[in-house]
Design goal:
The complex is a heterodimer of chains A (157) and B (754). Chain A contains 5 helices and 5 strands, in the order ββαβββαααα. Chain A is of the alpha+beta class and 157 residues long. Chain A has 2 domains: 73 residues, Beta-grasp domain (Ubiquitin-like (UB roll), Roll), CATH 3.10.20; 74 residues, DNA polymerase, domain 1 (Orthogonal Bundle). The longest helix of chain A has 22 residues. Chain B is an alpha+beta fold. Chain B folds into 3 domains: 236 residues, Aldehyde Oxidoreductase, domain 4 (2-Layer Sandwich); 151 residues, Aldehyde oxidase/xanthine dehydrogenase, molybdopterin binding domain (Aldehyde Oxidoreductase, domain 4, 2-Layer Sandwich), CATH 3.30.365; 318 residues, 2-Layer Sandwich (Aldehyde Oxidoreductase, domain 4). In chain B, the strands form 7 sheets. Chain B has a 7-stranded mixed beta sheet. In chain B, strands 12-20-19-18-13 form a 5-stranded mixed beta sheet, with helices on both faces. In chain B, a hairpin with a 2-residue loop joins strand 24 and strand 25. The two termini of chain B are 47 Å apart. Classes of the chains: A alpha+beta (157), B alpha+beta (754). At the A-B interface, helix 1, helix 2, helix 3, helix 4 and helix 5 of A face helix 8, helix 10 and helix 20 of B.
């Protein structure tokens, strides 16, 4: 099957049912997307499918065919950090870091849809597990990233 | 206090320090100072990892092209150690954090964590103690028990200072001036008189020849540029773009993936796999490997998904106890407390007699369940065995344990095992266990020449763990006008020390009655009591128990800080005032006062808002917390805020301390709200996050942290925030409802949180 990952077409020969997570990790060696639970509960495996945050550990890769897949490696494709990533540094969010790929991708998707999310929006949309408990800093970083993006938009206006 | 060692050990014996000169030609060999470092074992290191052809020493290496490399032998599992340890060296070495490169050395004696064995700060001015020698001999290169900073605090500053001094002397000699005319700054030595500057790299070779005969004075606190400041973590850039490599991210040429299937019953064994041939014929599957004693089977395939599906499809014939149940364990615990107490680590006065002879005493029972660590990164380990050599890749809390494990399975020489320590996707004590190492090494030995990445699925991870033990706890107390006349506390549990050390380092295993973790947070309390007893008994069960973030204090903090709250209530006193009246130690009192202050304890929190307070000391640090809740309906609460005050002595990186306070509270809350591992028909009933739930964004409180400014030797920060988290919450629930929650998790009492 053909998968469009971070703007590049990859051809893989796997069973129809193989989840996208394992195609990314084991077939394409793109290990930024993490295995956490395998039952779409923890969100470590989150990527964007056509901009929508999607858990890939239960999603057959064949379902993602024809969609634009954005993984953590594609969040800053030109090497320039995204507003979300910059906010993640400013607030020193990660601890062990294992869940952070999924968190950052989920935050990017949230801000694409809701440019200025409220705390309640964040509660509703960021449902990933962070075992280190970095939630306070994730929340603060999302607000900072929203502001950073808003400032840019205003400048562009 | 200029320096903790000075105060603690009296005379500052600089003469004890004798620098070590060059070991080889190029580069700087930093002085390994003090008798401690002259001990043969302490100086044993190969220098692997610093770069070929370079002359190196244990902790600091500077190449002629000015590349400054620091050793980082501790495991980064989120606690920030890969920033805080380099800060200790960089402060004295006078190099900016942006200028350093970290190197993970092989687990060699020079990097032993002596504090893990001694629970005492190193005395860098005297020879090694007996236990320190053992730590070097093993060597024990490991990370845990919130010991990294207490272990390294003096050692690494002196490493940086001696290097700096050698560089200054080399520059002074080059310029023909006295060392007193030079100083170091920003990775350069500067001639005060001429203003000339020289990069460290340019004089590294010369500096390596310098011999110091005394320890350079460590900088005084007022001159610190890095320590005590919020320094950005060095690991974060890799952790925001997916490039950080965890154990599970290791990818090697020809590597195959192994999926673990444990024997179902915890004391059982797999005796046969009737459908092995059918499984081995599946797409991508290469082999099914039976582990020794039938403890498990591993399906090796060309892809994790194929391997784990095949492992799930294995049909097993098994032995083992298929009747074990939580009810049976609970009944046993009742019996142990009533009839089988084996030790009383603390027995001051006559608590039992006073209580036996008194009327109107408080008498209550508390319970906590078994808990899984549930590290975000499922347990895994990668091993390659090839001829007389082996390599191992994992995020693990003991790089020496990684090598030991491979040696134990393969019989290879320790020196022939190359360890690759990766980032840990959480540790919490689980990654100090060696099961994944032994299992991966066994498969790699069976499939020599092929790198094997063994992974436990989340289900295998949760169901086959080394759990925090379930603990039953019985209190009796006699109160006396706002005081405690007698306090008796008995617990029944499986000994963590006995169980875990028998697995990891059996030569150090002590019987359960001598387990030092059982009394943590229970035997030594800050409160004045006339008669005080803490006693324990041992539950016999075929369940492995292990170190779970904050260990004994994880249960004892809940027990003691809940019961002291009960004592306050029974005395008709405010829980803060009651505690305060019974505390003599000013450090405890200051923490308690500060958390009351920042939480506005004395003011009414407002309608439907309630507070609970808790105070615990663990791992050398004192933490006070106030939980603030809003009651939404009868048993529905929002956990709005935690106020958290810590006295951890001298602070290395305050931003990390804050992060660890937030982290430890969330960890404690996940257990308090949801966490329990239960047994039925010999099996663990929970197997993934839907059954073993975690606090998520919508439930997580805002955590407000205050760090006390205390000029004492540093304590740990990775664990101490966890013990008070549960009792602060349940004490607040009591304030709201009058319901004293004496067992966890709260979900079993009908409480919900939003």
């Amino acid at each position: 099957m053909e998968l469009n990952i971070n703007g590049k077409i990859h051809t893989v020969d796997v069973e129809e049912g193989m989840p996208l997570l394992w195609v990314l990790r084991d077939e394409l060696n793109m290990t930024g997307t993490k295995y956490g639970c395998g039952v779409a509960s923890c969100g470590s495996c989150t990527v964007m499918l056509d901009g929508i945050a999607t858990r890939t550990c239960t999603l057959p890769a064949s379902v993602a065919e024809g969609k634009a897949i954005t993984t953590i490696e594609g969040v800053s494709p030109d090497g320039e950090l995204s507003d979300v990533q910059l906010a993640w540094i400013e607030h020193q969010v990660p601890q062990c870091g294992y869940c952070q790929s999924g968190m950052i991708v989920a935050a990017e998707a949230l801000l694409n849809e809701i440019p200025n999310p409220t705390d309640e929006d964040i509660n509703q949309r960021i449902t990933n597990i962070c075992r280190c408990g970095t939630y306070n800093r994730i929340r603060a970083a999302i607000h900072t990233a929203a502001k950073r993006r808003g400032d840019k938009t205003n400048l562009a206006d | 206090m200029a320096d903790s060692n000075k105060k603690k050990r009296g005379k500052w014996t600089r003469r004890a320090f004798i620098g070590v000169g060059a070991l080889a030609g190029v580069g700087l060999v930093v002085g390994v100072g003090g008798n401690i470092f002259l001990t043969r074992n302490a100086r044993k290191y190969s220098g692997k990892g610093f770069g070929e052809g370079d002359s190196i020493n244990a902790w600091v290496h500077i190449s002629p092209d000015n590349l400054i490399s620091l050793a980082m032998p501790r495991a980064e599992m989120g606690q920030g150690v890969s920033t805080s340890l380099p800060m200790l060296i960089a402060e004295e070495l006078e190099v900016p954090m942006s200028n350093i490169r970290l190197v993970t050395p092989q687990p060699e004696p020079a990097y032993a964590n002596t504090f893990l064995l001694t629970q005492e700060p190193r005395n860098i001015y005297s020879s090694l103690s007996f236990m320190e020698k053992i730590a070097h001999f093993l060597p024990l290169v490991a990370t845990g028990g919130s010991t990294s900073i207490p272990d390294a605090y003096d050692l690494l500053r002196s490493m940086g200072a001696s290097a700096r001094e050698m560089l200054i002397r080399a520059a002074a000699a080059k310029w023909g001036v006295s060392a007193g005319d030079c100083y170091a700054e920003n990775a350069q030595v500067i001639n005060k008189k001429s203003g000339e500057k020289v990069n460290y790299g340019a004089i590294a070779n010369e500096a390596a020849q310098i011999k110091l005969d005394e320890l350079p004075a460590l900088k005084s606190k007022k001159d610190w540029k890095l320590l005590g400041k919020p320094i950005q973590r060095l690991d974060i850039p890799e952790k925001i773009d997916g490039s950080a490599e965890f154990g599970l991210d290791v990818r090697l040429d020809g590597m195959l993936y192994g999926a673990m299937r444990h024997a179902t019953y915890h004391d059982g064994a797999i005796t046969a796999i009737p459908n092995q041939a059918e499984i081995e014929a599946r797409q991508g599957v290469k082999k099914v490997v039976m582990l020794p004693d039938g403890r498990g089977a591993v399906v090796v395939a060309d892809n994790t998904w194929r391997a784990k599906n095949a492992a799930l499809a294995l049909k097993l014939e098994e032995t083992g106890n298929n009747t074990l149940s939580s009810e049976e364990l609970d009944a046993q615990a009742e019996d142990v407390i009533a009839n089988k107490i084996i030790a009383a680590p603390k027995d001051e006065g006559n608590a039992t007699k006073v209580l036996d002879e008194s009327e109107g005493i408080l008498e209550v029972t508390y319970d906590v369940p078994y808990l899984a660590h549930a590290c975000m990164e499922p347990i895994n380990c990668t091993v390659l065995v090839k001829g007389d050599k082996a390599e191992i890749w994992a995020g693990h809390q003991g790089s020496s344990l990684m090598a030991d494990g491979v040696v134990a399975v393969t019989g290879l020489d320790y020196e022939n095992v190359t360890v690759h320590e990766k980032y840990l996707g959480g540790g919490f004590g689980r990654r100090a266990e060696i099961d994944m190492i032994l299992n991966a090494a066994h498969v790699a030995k069976e499939m020599e020449g092929t790198p094997i990445q063994l992974v436990y699925t989340r289900e295998e991870d949760i169901r086959h763990e080394m759990y925090r033990p379930a603990v039953k706890s019985k209190f009796r107390a006699k109160l006396n006008n706002g005081g405690i006349e007698a306090w008796e506390h008995k617990v029944a549990l499986q000994s963590v020390g006995f169980s875990s050390i028998n697995r990891i380092k059996p030569q150090f295993a002590e019987p359960p009655e001598k387990d030092l973790s059982t009394p943590e947070g229970a035997a030594e309390l800050p409160y004045r009591m006339e008669n005080m007893k803490f006693a324990l008994g041992q539950i016999e069960a075929p369940i492995q128990v292990g170190n779970w973030r904050s260990v004994g204090s994880s249960q004892n903090g809940f027990f003691t800080e809940s019961f002291i709250d009960e004592c306050a209530h029974a005395s008709n006193m405010d829980p803060y005032e009651f505690r305060r009246n019974l505390i003599d130690d000013p450090r405890f009192k200051n923490v308690l006062d500060k958390v009351a202050e920042i939480s506005n304890w004395k003011q009414n929190p407002g309608e439907n808002r309630f507070r609970g307070i808790a105070l615990c000391k663990s791992f050398g640090s004192i933490v006070g917390q106030v939980a603030e809740l809003t009651r939404i309906s009868e048993k529905e609460f929002s956990i709005d805020k935690y106020y958290c005050v810590i006295d951890c002595g001298r602070v290395v990186n305050p931003d990390t301390v804050e992060a660890q306070m937030q982290s430890g509270i969330i960890f404690g809350l996940s257990a308090a709200l949801y966490g329990e591992i239960t047994f039925k028909d010999g099996e663990v009933e929970q197997y993934n996050f839907p059954q073993y739930e975690m606090v998520r964004m919508n439930v997580a409180p805002t955590v407000v942290v205050h760090i006390m400014d205390v000029d004492e030797y540093p304590g740990g920060v990775g664990e101490p925030a966890t013990p008070p988290a549960a009792p602060a919450l349940t004490n607040a629930i009591f304030a709201a409802t009058g319901d004293r929650v004496r067992s966890l998790p709260l979900k079993n009492h009908g409480y919900t949180f939003v």
